[in-house]
Amino acid sequence: MLSLLVFNIKNINSVIKGYVLGVFLGIIITAINIFNFYLDHNFLPFGNTSQVQDLLLIHRPYFGFMCFISIVLIYGLAKKIKSKKKRKVYLILGIIILGFLFTIVARLSLLLALAYILIRVIMGFKLSKTKLFFSLSLCIFIVFGLFTINKNIKNRFYIKDSYKETIKVLKNQEPRFVIWNCSLKQLTKSDFNIFVGYKNRNEIQENLTTCYNLDIDNVSKRNYYLRTNFNTHNQFVDIFLDGGLIGFMLFMVILLFCCYFFRNNFDGIFILFGMSVFLLVENLFHRQLGVYLFGVFVPLFYKMITVQKE
């Protein structure tokens, strides 16, 4: 119903401004929580710690993705405004949101936001090959510097002193290495129907739990996985397990349909790209917020494109 209602919005800019300001309000509330925590403990717990969720209003990956969407929307709003003062306000707002992504270290959304800004800068300035090379080198140097200086970023990306050590820690500490392996194992089971998938979602989760119990040798790590009850953390795999080829192809038709309508709009394509990458590492549709993000922003960007054409 929300998706259908979005198509009937008359003043699309008011909705976009409302969303951006809503995200900004969430950042302010979170910033107060972070400030109070820092005064009490004298450090920021945005590495791989359990304290993160106590400070953030929303689960970190989703809050980060909402911030990434805001940055894209802010650019769209700013380029329509003629007033330089108002543009500066939006620029400051975008910088604050980007700074917030660096602070909470929402990995995927941070990388997507940096990629979007970099591409927009390149497209806007139309630099020569030499200037482009030096500009890219400078950006990479700055980002690399920020990544190595910030202890939380190093922890979140599992950056260690050597490449071997980094890979070793990544495989040991990143849950998706175990989760994805257990998810893919389900494709070879006899009760999996390639056309319609498993009978129900409970069966998929039970198979994951059994796999965690058998494959993880470390007792504390195994108990953590069993207690947390991790899902597949990949929406594409999840849909294939749940609906087989039929369900998977139907979902791909929706994405391809969106690609067709967004084909001449960079922001729409980039949001769809970002959402697709997010679907590779999270089960977006397992959360109500995730359903809203997909079900509202896909038609919202479609509406934005049709308004621009008119």
What's a quick, concise take on this entry?
This protein has 310 residues and is mainly α. The protein is 77% helix and 0% strand. The longest helix is centred in the first third of the chain and has 30 residues.
> Describe the biggest sheet?
none
Q: What's the total helix number? A: 15
Number-wise, the strands total 0
Give the overall pLDDT as a whole number. Answer: 87
Taken in chain order, the helices and strands follow as: HHHHHHHHHHHHHHH
What is the total number of structural domains?
2
The geometry reads as globular
Oligomer designation? single chain
Walk me through what this model shows:
Helix content is 77%, strand content 0%. By secondary structure, the chain is mainly alpha-helical. It has two domains: 2-126 and 239-309, no CATH class; 174-233, no CATH class. Helix 4 (60-78) runs antiparallel to helix 5 and helix 13 packs antiparallel against helix 14. The mean pLDDT is 87.
Question: Which terms summarize this structure?
Answer:
310 residues, mainly alpha, 2 domains, 15 helices, globular
Task: Produce the secondary structure layout.
Blueprint: H1 2-6, H2 12-41, H3 52-55, H4 60-78, H5 84-104, H6 107-125, H7 129-149, H8 151-156, H9 163-173, H10 175-185, H11 201-215, H12 219-228, H13 235-262, H14 266-281, H15 288-309
